[in-house]
Amino acid sequence: MSDEIRERHGEGDDAAGEGGDGGAPHGHGPTGFWTRYVWSQDHKIIAIQYTLVALVVGVIGIVLSDLMRLQLGFPGKFAFIDPASYYQFITMHGMIMVIYLLTAIFLGGFGNYLIPLMVGARDMVFPYLNMLSFWFYLLAVLILLGSFFVPGGPTGAGWTLYPPQAILPGTPGVEAGIVVMLVSLLVFIAAATMGGLNYVTTILQARTRGMTLMRMPLTVWGIFIATILALLAFPALFVSGVMMLLDRVLGTSFFMPAIVSMGQPLGYSGGSPLLFQHLFWFFGHPEVYIVALPAFGIISDLISVHARKCIFGYRMMVWAIVIIGALSFVVWAHHMYVSGMHPWFGFFFAVSTLVIAVPTALKVYNWTLTLWRGDIHLTAPMLFALGFISTFLIGGLTGLFLGNVSVDIPLSNTYFVVAHFHMVMGVSPVLAVFGGIYHWYPKVTGRMLHEGLAQLHFWITFLGAYAIFFPMHYLGLLGMPRRYYAYDNYSFIPPSAQSLNAFITVAALVVGVAQLLFLANLAWSARRGRPAGANPWRAGSLEWQTPQTPPAHGNWGERLPVVYRGPYSYGHSGPDGDYMPQNVGPDTGPGEREEGDRRPGSGTDALRPAGEGGLA
Amino acid sequence: MKLHTEVFKLLWIDPACRFQPDGYWPGSGPAPYGTREVGLWAFMAVVCTLFALFGAAYLMRISYDDWRRLPSVPWQLWLSTGLLVASDVAWALAARAAKRRYLRRAGRLGMLGWAFAAAFVASQLWAWDAMAAQRVIATAGPAAGFFYMLTGLHAVHVMGGMVAAAWVLARLRPDEASRPGEGLALCARYWHMLLVLWCAVFGLLFCMTPELVRTICAGIGMPLR
Amino acid sequence: MAIALAVVLVLIAAGAVVFHFASPWQQLPIASNWHAMDDALWLTFVITGVAFVLLHLFVAWALVRYRHRAGHRASAEHGNRRLEWWLIGITTAGIIGLLAPGLTVYARLIDPPAGAQVFEVMGQQWQWHYRLPGRDGRLGAAAAGFVTGANPFGIDPQDAYGQDDVLVQGQELHLPLNRPALAQLRAQDVLHDFYVPQFRTRMNMVPGMVTHFWFTPERAGRYEVLCAQLCGVGHANMRSWVVIDEPAVYAGWLARQPTFGGGTAPGRAGTPGVPGGPAEPGKLGRLLAQQKGCVACHSVDGSRGVGPSWKGLYGSTEALEGGATAKVDDAYLRQAINAPQAAVVRGYPPVMPPAGLSEAELAAVVEYIKTVH
Question: How far apart are CA A262 and CA A234, in angstroms?
Answer without folding.
Answer: 34
